[in-house]
Structure formats: C-alpha cells, structure tokens
Amino acid sequence: MLVNFASIMQAKGVYKGKEEVSIRLSASELSVQQFFIEVERETPFKFSYENKELDKSEIIQFKYKTGTVEDRLKDVGQQSSLSFRKMNHIIHVALNEPAEVRSIEEADWGQVSGTVTDENGEPLPGASVTVAGTAAGTVTDLDGNYNITVPDGATLIFSYIGFEAMRVSVDNRTKIDVSLQADISSLDEVVVVGYGTVNKRDLTSAISQVSGKDIENRFTSRIDEALQGKLAGVSVQQTSGLPGAAPVIRIRGTSSITEGNQPLWVVDGMPIEDANIIANINMSDAESVEVLKDAAAAAIYGSRASNGVVIITTKKGKSGKTNISYNMRYGIQEPEKLVDFVSGPEHAELLAEWRAWRWESTGGDPNEPNASRPANMRIDPNWLTGDVPNYNIQDHLFRTASIQNHNISLSGGNDKTTYFMSLDYLDQEGIAVGTSFERFSIRTNVESKVTDLITIGLNIAGSTSTQIDANSEGKDRNINTSLRHGALVDASDFYFWMMVLHLGMIIHLSMG
C-alpha cells in the first residue's frame, strides 16, 4: 500500500512542511484497536472513524516495533482494508471499496479572501462566511472583507440577515468576491409600528420582531419573560425565582442612572406604563411583538418612549367557519443545584471549635467548666462525640413543582364582521415551598367593517392573578436564614419552629 505524508507547500497551506513522528510499539503483534490506542498515547495524532464500520479486532503483524507513524500505518494498510487521511493532527480512517487501493494523504488547506457586498456594491459588515459541511467559519469586517482557511474542494456559504444566502465552490481560487441579493420574501413581512403597519421594505426605523408562535412555544408564565434571547438589542434578565415575577428589560442598554429604564408597553394600541400588568396577558393571545428601538418612537409616544417601546398585537378573528381550539400544557420544575452541606457531626465539630475560640478570644479560661460559661459559648458534649442529628433542611424548603396551562379560543366571522375570544388558566408552583402564581384571563375582540373606509372594533380584556411569596427571597428571609442552621436542626422541631415563626420565616413549610 502506498503511503504518502506529503508536505504542504507554503504558498498554498497553513503548514510549512511535514513533521516526522516516531513511535515504539509495545509488541510486534497488535490488534487495530490496540495500535490506535498506542499511537494516540505516544504521539500527538488522534484517529477519527465510524465505530460501526471498522473491525478493530483484526490482528496486524509489524515487522519492526520502532519507526515513524507513517511506516507503521503502512503495515496496517497492507494487511487490512483500511485507508488513512491525515488532516492536521487528526488521522481519518475509512474502509476501502473492494479492489480499491488508497493512500494516506494529508489534506491540502489554503487561504481564501474576498469582499461581501450588496447588489449596489456597498460592503456588508458582519456577514457570515462558513465552509459547507464543517463548523469552520468567519465574519466580514467593517469593510466587508473576510479571510478563511479552507480544504481542497470546499464550498463557501455566504449569508446575511435580510439577504439570500449564496453557495460558491472554491475551485482552487484564492480570492472570491460575492454580491448578495436582498431577500424579497422577508421584505414583504408586515411590521406593526406605533401609527399602523408597514412592509419591511418601507421601514426605516430600528425595529425587532418576534412572532406569536415563537412566544407561545416557550413555556413561561409571562409574555415579557418569553422574549428572552428572541430580539436583537433587547436584554431580558430574570432577577427573581418567584413565579410570576417581572424580569428586567433593557432596550439598547441603560439610558439613565437615577431614573427608570423600563420600556413603554403598548397592547393593541393602548399604552401601558405599569409593566406588572403585562403578567396578566395570556401568551397564546399574542399575534406578534415588535420593539421600537430608536428615536423615531419618541415622535409617536413622546418622552415615555425614551427607553424604547414594546408593541404587543393580540390575535383577531378571521372570516370563515367558527373555529374552536383547546391547548393544554404541563411541565415540572426542580432546583438545578442545591447547597452542599457538611454532615451533622462535621457541623457540630466546627461549631465546637468556633465557640472554644470565641471563649478564649474574649479572655476566657479554656479550663473553666462548660456550665459556668455564657450560654452562647458553651459546648454541647455530644458535639465532641459526634452523637448529633443529621437533617437535610432543604427537603423542607424545596420541591419538584408543577406548571400547567389551559387555553380555549373561539374565532370566526364573515366578510363584514370577525370575532375572537379566549379563556386561559395558568397555575405555576414555585420550587420554593409556599410560593406559587395563578392566573385566569379572558380576552374578546370584535371588528366590523361599516364601509370601505370605516371599521369599528371592540376589545375587552380581564384577568385576575394571585402571587404567593412565603418570604423566600432575600438575605434575612426564610430560605437563607434556614440554611444557616445546617444539618443539626430538624425543620419539624418544635423549638426551631417557635424561633422561626417568631422571626416571620418559613411560614409555609411542610412538616413532612
């Protein structure tokens, strides 16, 4: 079998020449699997192959135990149906086709550069350039220029938001300039702005959009929380684990240190300045959400829009037969990671050391009897013997919580009048025992076309919600305070409960 670790010419590749790597095998007779293991252990090379295709139990006879990796791969290739191809430090292993002879060859990699522009010749900064079928890729700079390393026979994929992607074969070229064409279909999408709707092609303002379907697919209790990671330039941070808690939303960063930074919310054309009301909107009712991010929003909503505007458009009826749909979702939530506590005996030992140190640091005699010391400096004899309880208070603080959502909607109409109505029920337990969020909402809208120029509509929405917080969050609240007691105190202990209740903590813990 012909083996060729060919050096790569400097003008074409990344590497300047070949590197001879030697190896000493442990035996002159090894299985293919043992050979692979020894090469990977003794050299920088790693093998890549499909397990299901290779018979790694095949025995190979090596004439010499020492030599280069290239020589030893010759032995394997001559006695098996395997072929090898080296790409950098990875040796790819494949099965030869019947009666086919392959060599070990090193893939040639070269540099390709160029410029990405639009149809008018304007550079596109941040355009994506990737090698098809691989994870290799880069982005263009501010002038639309790029530089990427590619293997022989590669195909490059050029893409940019709002433009059609383009595939180009390299064909041994070192410079490839491309001109991307605008994606006409995306420009025909309708976007809601403060004064109506426009096509994307006619839009000059900075607007991000997410569809109602994308929002509905995220199982959360609030529509604003469902926007996380969906809109460019919009930061959504969940700062509380309490069910139904409002996230912190920033559009293009923080605009003020002393004043509020919450955006203005607009639901079906009605401005809402209290973000807490958003918690009462059923996510299944959302048709789309648009975010106005530039100064143009101030021309519509004034100074209230200084932190951006979030526009929520709810679903409306469509002409046709009455359509009734029901949707039910159920899920569970649990703590991702709990606190790792020391055991009861370990806690007791540390507590004894601390009280002894505290007694001596205040001038106390270490030989003074325990009974004559102040109560907060005495050492329980059981602490020294390890004869103490070993409780896990987290079993009483946390739980596997359920979340369920039921939604039923009714829609229909004719050419003149359309209607839509929905009922929604959400019940979310918190992972902290005693916390929960429950919401019931109803929404109805009717639109009637009086003339070709006049359409009247009626929107009615109502909701009721209950959020229960068992003083769970904060430095001196139930969870933090309870965890300080460690493994020595049982949550069902009467005296512990008297102390906790006196401090107004853990009022909703289950006794187990």
UniProtKB/TrEMBL annotation:
PROSITE patterns: TONB_DEPENDENT_REC_3. The keyword Transport applies. GO terms for biological process: siderophore transmembrane transport. Residues 200-309 form the TonB-dependent receptor plug domain. One of its GO terms (molecular function) is siderophore uptake transmembrane transporter activity. Gene3D superfamilies: Carboxypeptidase-like, regulatory domain, TonB-dependent receptor, plug domain. InterPro entries: CarboxyPept-like_regulatory, Plug_dom, Plug_dom_sf, TonB-dep_OMP_SusC/RagA, TonB-dep_OMP_SusC/RagA_CS, TonB-dep_rcpt-like. It is a multi-pass membrane protein. Transmembrane segments: none annotated. GO terms for cellular component: cell outer membrane. It holds the Pfam family CarbopepD_reg_2. Keywords: Cell outer membrane, Membrane, Receptor, Signal, Transmembrane, Transmembrane beta strand, Transport. It is found in: Cell outer membrane. Belongs to the TonB-dependent receptor family. This is TonB-dependent receptor. It comes from Cyclobacterium qasimii M12-11B.
